[in-house]
Amino acid sequence: MAAEGAVCVFGNPGRGKTAAVRMALSEVPAGWKVTWVPVPVRPSVAGMRRAVFDALALPGRFPHTSALADATVAGALGEARVLVIDEAQRLPVPCLEYLQSLWDHPGTRITLVLCGAGTERALARLPQLASRIGAWQEVPRLAAAEVTTVVSGFHPLWRTVSAEDLAWIDQTSAHGTLRTWAALTTHLQNALLTTADAVPDRALLGRLCQRVAPPL
């Protein structure tokens, strides 16, 4: 952010990329704002232009020409802002070029975060932007040694489960994927709320693991 640079956050689906970015941006320096821009379905430059305009919550109607829209957006981006594009791997080259034009505009102050599984491959199609990425941050699988700490911090329910059981769940079901752990958390909450005297023992945890396992 101090350099007003660009970052690519990538990794396989379910690794927790979006969650990691949200946590990293939960507190930003004074004077900075964070804006998340959703990627439209079948993204086009016109669609991205409108998505950025709407994400910035700018007053008034969307301008009737692209030149006016670009001027309005660039003016709003004159204040320090982190612009997060989640699912950026879906963006074709023209949309990436549009985002680069906003970032390169002399009147804007943007830190650009491009996040998503395969975003690094999408950027490879636009070398002039890829060469300007200041940090390539891969979000890997949770290592076995990290599971207890990370999962216990993810939700307090897991603090009632032994480290041995957490390791067993990860080996048999979650395989270091945070999205699977999130699904297991939901199932565990439901089980404890709806079943009298339910305890998170190996039998219950085994049933929950079966629920998140994909069908053969």
Topology as a string of helices (H) and strands (E): EHEHHEHEHHEHHHH
Number of helices: 10
Structural class: alpha/beta
Low-confidence stretches: none
Number of strands: 5
| Radius of gyration computed on alpha carbons | 21 Å
Per the principal axes of the C-alpha atoms, what is the gross shape? Answer: elongated
Characterise the protein shown here:
With 216 residues, this protein is an alpha/beta fold. The chain contains 10 helices and 5 strands; from the N terminus they run E-H-E-H-H-E-H-E-H-H-E-H-H-H-H. The chain has helices spanning 17-24, 45-55, 66-76, 93-104, 119-124, 127-130, 147-154, 163-174, 178-194, 202-212; strands at 6-10, 33-37, 81-86, 110-115, 133-138. It is elongated. The termini are far apart.
